[in-house]
Write a structure and sequence with these properties.
heterodimer; A: mainly alpha; MetI-like fold; 12 helices; 0% strand; B: alpha+beta; Rossmann fold; OB fold (Dihydrolipoamide Acetyltransferase, E2P); 2 domains; five-stranded antiparallel sheet; 8 helices
């Protein structure tokens, strides 16, 4: 084994550990019961196997309701981010227009203001508009957070699709929109799907804005923040575990999808 | 089937003139090659005909129909792109069928046409593969099959072979010629490769700096180039140009006296490397060998003669050492005379 390869493998192992060890520890706490949580040094396998903490967590009043709110907000965020972000990305990739560079910067600027600063005026406006304390309001806020990613990622996706493919479609009988839907969109779809999932996860994980903009109709993260601080440690682990699971599942599913499309082995 | 009429097409990008008043007619069923160096505007012209770009002035007629403002899909043409532009998310079969599907052709006809086009290009075994699983040459065959399958009135080809390696290009060129002749499609073929143009085309249009210098059959364009640019662009190695003074209406080349075209004072004599006969006898004009390249079928000599640098093709067994002096005699019936200022041909001896 050469040195280069050794370094490469070490880097891969470090990166995997970086992601997997915390997830493993959370899982350990979630299914190992109180004994495992309090044990030191940590055992590799849980001392007692028990789904009690998870069950207990699921039985906390309001968890299911707030999960539903989270899904609502995240879905709205995903839909808006793609519906507005993908066309904006397409325009950035295909057309040269005045202020294109400015627009790129402007899109990024939405992330330049800390949510903490925007929260109060936003809360006031949402109250006026009747959006306060609703998953729709949270979803709107989150779509702003996800938008820069959606725009810039989809711009580079569309840029990677050769213009000639679109031109060939025009020549062989497609109208402008026809070429987009028959050729460009299918080719960009894996990337757009990934972007959509990304937007979903951004919203799913976001806690600050969700906490500020809701009181009774909290999304899961915001709800757990209030509830879990008063719960025993192993319940907190159970909560954390349940929060992670959807993201990890999504990513695994999407990865398969991304890699197996159209006989292209890897990209 | 249809003729292409390019009627005084002009194209301007900001202040630069990309195409300057181009007129050209491609007759029904004819294959015309647009030949020129990169940046001469040949691809722009092709894209204007396809409707992918809009001309600044002039108009294009296909089958006597004015194409101004008509989108690419309604022009009744097919195109083969330089980088193939085969749809990566469709199987070869669906790529070839794409154009016909868009016209709403019956399934039976699509199947028949796909099979025929695939057969012509020898890609039947690949029909169920995705383009990512094909080599460059195979992808190019798919691109050509996709264009042929729609049985277009007009076929446009944009340097279709330039991304292939030399051997594949040779093979594909022969196949293309057969296929296009069989289909009898009116074809405009853009290339910067003179061998491709000479080998494939019924007529060649040589372009330089947004203008067409000459349109003629391959043999005529080779033998009777209209300008010094055309003469130098066609032929490997290119034609030799000797700048010579005229005295008493004649030019002296060693002990050969050549009658110069009337009225010329200084004049440029063009003579192709294969139209010079070399000998060691004192006959013709002196040539000092600088480089000798044995190329198998013949030997290529580069050296100095009165009037400038010269390349000569000599028989393969003749291999003079560097510095040795030979005597060259031109074939008197294969000379071209050019105006030194304008580069226009003054006269071709026959």
């Amino acid at each position: 084994m050469t040195l280069r390869r050794a370094i490469f493998l070490a880097a891969v192992a470090t990166l995997c550990a970086w992601v997997l060890v915390p997830i493993y520890l959370i899982m350990l706490g979630a299914i190992g019961g109180e004994a495992t949580v309090n044990a030191w040094p940590k055992p590799f396998w849980p001392i007692t196997w028990s789904l009690a903490a998870l069950r207990q967590f699921m039985n906390i009043a309001g968890v299911w309701q707030s999960t539903l709110y989270s899904v609502e907000a995240a879905s709205l965020c995903m839909v808006i981010a793609i519906a507005l972000g993908a066309p904006a990305g397409y325009a950035l990739a295909r057309y040269r227009f005045r202020g294109a560079t400015g627009f790129r910067l402007f899109v990024l600027l939405t992330r330049a203001f800390p949510v903490a600063i925007l929260a109060l005026p936003l809360a006031v406006s949402f109250i006026r508009l009747g959006l306060y304390d609703s998953p729709i309001g949270v979803g709107l806020m989150h779509s702003v957070l996800a938008m820069p990613f959606a725009v810039l990622i989809s711009a580079s996706l569309f840029q990677a699709i050769p213009r000639e493919l679109e031109e060939a479609a025009w020549i062989f009988g497609c109208s402008g929109p026809g070429a987009f839907f028959r050729v460009v969109l299918p080719l960009a779809l894996p990337g757009i799907t990934a972007t959509a999932i990304f937007a979903f996860v951004i919203s799913w994980n976001e806690v600050f804005a969700a906490s500020v903009l809701t009181v009774r109709h909290r999304t899961l993260t915001a709800y757990l923040l209030t509830v879990l601080s008063e719960s025993p440690l192993h319940t907190q682990f159970a909560g954390g575990f349940i929060l992670i699971v959807p993201s990890v599942l999504f990513i695994l599913l999407v990865r398969r999808q991304l890699f197996s499309m159209w006989g292209i082995a890897s990209r | 089937m249809a003729a292409i009429v390019i009627d005084h097409i002009g194209m301007r990008f900001g202040g630069t003139v990309a195409l300057d008043d181009i007129s050209l007619t491609v007759a029904d069923g004819e294959l015309v090659a647009l030949l020129g160096p990169s940046g001469c505007g040949k691809t722009t012209l092709l894209r204007i005909i396809a409707g992918l770009q809009t001309e600044t002035s002039g108009r294009v007629l296909i089958g006597e129909r004015d194409m101004s403002g008509i989108p690419p899909r309604r022009r009744g043409l097919a195109m083969v792109f330089q980088n193939y532009a085969v749809f990566p998310h469709m199987r070869v079969r669906d790529n070839i069928a794409f154009g016909l599907r868009m016209t709403g052709a019956a399934a039976a006809r699509i199947e028949r046409q796909v099979a025929r086009a695939a057969g012509l290009l020898h890609i039947e075994p690949l029909l169920d593969r995705y383009p990512a699983q094909l080599s460059g040459g195979q992808r190019q065959r798919v691109a050509v099959a996709r264009a042929l399958a729609v049985e277009p009135a007009v076929m446009l080809m944009d340097e279709p072979l330039s991304n292939l390696d030399a051997l594949l290009r040779l093979e594909m060129r022969a196949d293309l010629k057969t296929v296009l002749r069989e289909a009898g499609t009116t074809t405009l073929y853009v290339t910067h490769d003179q061998t491709e143009a000479m080998g494939l085309a019924d007529r060649i249009a040589v372009m330089a700096q947004g203008r067409i210098d000459q349109v003629a059959s391959p043999s005529d364009i080779y033998r009777y180039p209209a300008t010094r640019f055309v003469a130098g662009f066609l032929g490997t190695p290119p034609m030799n140009f000797l700048a010579l003074p005229v005295m008493d209406g004649a030019v002296a080349l060693g002990n050969v006296r050549l009658a110069a075209p009337a009225g010329a004072t200084p004049v440029v004599l063009g003579v192709r490397p294969e139209d010079l006969v070399a000998s060691t006898e004192l006959e013709g004009f002196a040539f000092t060998t600088q480089v000798t390249e044995p190329l198998g079928a013949h030997t290529l000599l580069t050296g100095q003669a009165e009037g400038g640098l010269l390349r000569v093709i000599v028989p393969p067994d003749l291999r003079p050492a560097a510095g040795s002096v030979l005597f060259l005699r031109p074939h008197l019936d294969r000379l071209s005379w050019f105006d030194p200022a304008s580069g226009a041909a003054l006269e071709h001896t026959a």
